[in-house]
């Protein structure tokens, strides 16, 4: 039944109204009263319904005729009839009556109208059951009411709102999914007419609509939600004001009582916004107000709401309402943690749905990535990674950079999330290539970054990197060929640090495998106390390689018990770690062991998890024989040019070199997997390639894996031998070394093979062709080290007649005077490279002999010491360049350190030689300091060097470069932790505490600092401050923890030293005074930094006899060697005067790098420059201040920088006319003195590694500049004439060890400015040159006048022959040395025109 625009025409009715006013019924319809049955009533009412249905509004007569009937049907009898069918029919009649009589209803009573509409509304509930036989009548009723808009009559009623509320509630309650669209349409028509044609919507009526939007109701009746949604969309223009008023009452005025829905206000806003944002045009400003509420929970609720509004897919709220967006972004910095957390969570949806807003979010996410709350930092990572996994284009490089930073977060949970997130991105976009090459390039850095994390100390980080490598970088579940291709190109594309990390990872896994293998070997041995002790130590070592070592110890012990009881489990583990275990076998073994240890009753088994960690680390899941063969085939394809190298972003040369490096690394960890003819044939092919690195790696692989070549592969052997001989004789130095070691490792007749190399090489040595010397020297050195019994004696003559006499003691070529202290390897002269290898040959020869029966070690040590004293220029002919001298100094210092690793040679190294070696770490050349420190650390960390060498790191406090000081501190931390851990893990180590306990470094450090050449005056505050800084540099690390009352122990050592004398010069009071002064400074530092040092020392420390004498009986030394005032200055760190030179001259800008601060002469600077001899403290203080800025710069010290030419203000006694512009470098040269690598030196900024050339021409009419003095000892006449100068003049003007700058006392120090300021020379000449006495090794052989044979040549006119130069070295080969000469071997060296040979100490 469907009412269209016009009703159907009514049929003629035969009924009439009786004259007495009775009700007229339609024809055929009898009177309807309560006297008839219900069925009869229904029958008659149906006929009445039919009659009214057929009537239209134009039937005036019929309308008048049936008016009484209409009034009758509205009586209480019908409205309250208990029968629902009766009520339905009456309702239909009433609906038609309203249609027929519209626009005026036949009912005039407001109460009656209200009752009628409430009655009709109640009948609409019948719409709920669509399967009811009466549903069509209910639909007709709804359709009629909607079409006619009958309810609009109620607007005239005072309480119409009650009717409308009832109607809306009824319609929303009956709508369901069985209704068709017509039902929903009529309901909408009915309700929308009420909303749009009324004077307004009351709060109660609005609630009846909005309640259907609340999530709870929405979930219960989805159709009512849809109905309300469409209704609101249709009436948006009318209802928006009502909605705005509602939210204003609740949000702004806080009147929550206005509606029962007040507590759901934010849910409603979200739903309304999703329906139509226009519904909330007036509400959004109110939300901005709420965002600034003082109530954190309220702000949190608004943030949650707005996060959904801004983040929804089709929302343009952020662009339409910028003020609200900006206000919302401000909540990222909210003080309330949950608000910040909610803001961060929103960012993920926002990035995915609105990439255009990423720019706005980036800065706020950056701040939150450093949030103090762990959960927020964690969610920042989740947010970015989630968006990136959806589409990498959604996140910019900056956002990925935040994740990269968090891989180093202090919290493990955050680090783990960042690392795993990056790993997933790498696998998706790089391995699988899901977004093309551009996306893969964007995240190509991830592989390097993840592997860099392996450098972290935490075992959790290391284990996670190993897991990521096995699952994401090179997934172990790939087929062998695919897996090796992935590894091959990954290794070729890694940066050097990542390669080192990956190599270290394989090394650690291999080491752990060896530990487990040794544990299994212990199980095979009979039970004994020694066996149990060894097993316990091995278990502790294994536990250290697992997460949470404390808990791991218990689990490892339990696992060890299981291994002892279960032989099958033991055999499975043996198979897993056997060299022949394949990757597939390893997988089976791991599963089998895990199955045996699993407990079905215990779903979470921490013991099993720990064992799985162990198995994952030791299982060879990547490499086996098949994998090595696949790698070799890949490398062969690269050699042949048939590989996909270019497609993988790697050049063929890089692929070959990296592939061979990869095989070289794997040859250490999986040597057995290489043993096949096919693999060795490919390696032989590599040996024939022109690439030196490739050939070198191939030789090393043969060395590591070829133990069975001689017996199993004779054809390979016969091909390999001549190649190795050729490489040992004419290959590169590295190839020669590996070739010699390879022959020694894999051939049984190695003596014959090595002799065939040794003899022709030793006969063909020619110092006149240094280019052809380097490889033979390397080969000879390694041969003599590997086979000393056979070659030590023949090598002695080579050393004496060629190495020392012909090579080291002659300078055949003149070095390039480029002014730099370091040059790249390719720029180093062949002669110097040969000399460096000659020094290494001496060391290797001695290390092979391992004895000093021929006193060769003493001679070698004296030679090396002389090399250091002469600054690398052993002949002192000034023909060698500064950069080459740096190379030779480094070689000499490293050689002494290498010899010290052998106990028999350590014993004969004198304290003076040790001190010379130590001072290399303060060398003026940055690279020398850097490389020497690395070598020192490497030897110490392996416990190869005696403990006294760790004291050398204290001198790093003087290094002018911040990075070097930081590196030294890290080295100290590592060394100390390793020594302490070694003592804990090795019970037998307690017997060697003197050489292992880190605290025992204190006496060595005190002695070393007491003999520091910078420490010349024991009461000089500046010098004491430097001593204090060096002491604290070491003590700070030692005193981090007070383990076993170590603070009191160190204090006791310093006190005990004051009861002894310096064994180096026991009878010299000044030397002992300096020693005691350093002790007092150390005590001062310890007392000030620790309140626990006053406790009793756990044991009486033992002092090294080599450096300290035995304390005399009844000797008491309670004297304080530093004044109270000095003590206060040292502790309070009173600021020193500001450095004028450093303040005036700013660093010069240079493209692409931060320039070094260059110290230059200024008004005050020139005064200090000239008068610093008379007022040395001023110069040293200013130099210290000037370098403070320079110390922080990161530019290489050995680069030449442009120098600013400045004016120098004339000083007293200087002609103002002649004192014009002076080159800044030259003007300050005198102030620089001989400072090498000191922390607070002017020269550290940029001048310390530059030999500044004169830019100004000398005025021909002026006095000639004096020639630059040689660096040897002064001529005897001058030396004797100045021997009696007082101490004030003798005082060094600036502390340190710099050799590049001319000393202030030297006339050559001002030679560049002589033409324009001649009186500067006069002042320099008038000032008496300082004299400094230093310690020389006691075994130094002296000349007839007490001069060193090395030093005689320093005098003008002397030109010693080769024989004279060799006397010092050859003297050690004679029977004995004169004891008187040994005792009197203290050489006094003058600081004047020529500094002595040893002034560099």
Question: Rounded to an integer, what's the Rg over CA atoms?
Answer: 48 Å
- Secondary-structure-based class equals mainly alpha
Distance between the termini: 116 Å
* Average pLDDT score: 76
Instruction: Give the overall shape, derived from the CA principal axes.
Output: elongated
In the sheet with the most strands, the strands line up as 1-2
Strand runs, count: 4
**Residue windows where pLDDT falls under 50 for at least 5 positions:** 1-20, 1135-1401
Oligomer: single chain
How would you sum up the major sheet? 2 strands, antiparallel
Tell me the number of helical segments per DSSP (H or I, 4 or more residues long).
66
Indicate the proportion of strand residues. Answer: under 5%
What is the helical fraction, as a range of percent?
Answer: 55-70%
Protein name: Sister chromatid cohesion protein PDS5 homolog A isoform X1
Pfam families: PDS5
Keywords: Cell cycle, Cell division, Mitosis, Nucleus, Repeat
Subcellular location: Nucleus
Written account of the structure:
With 1401 residues, this protein is an all-alpha fold. It is 58% helix and 1% strand. Helix 8 (160-174) crosses helix 12 (222-234), helix 14 runs parallel beside helix 16 and helix 16 packs parallel to helix 19 (337-353). The chain starts with 37 loop residues before the first helix and ends in an 11-residue tail after the last strand. The model is unreliable at 1-20 and 1135-1401 (pLDDT under 50).
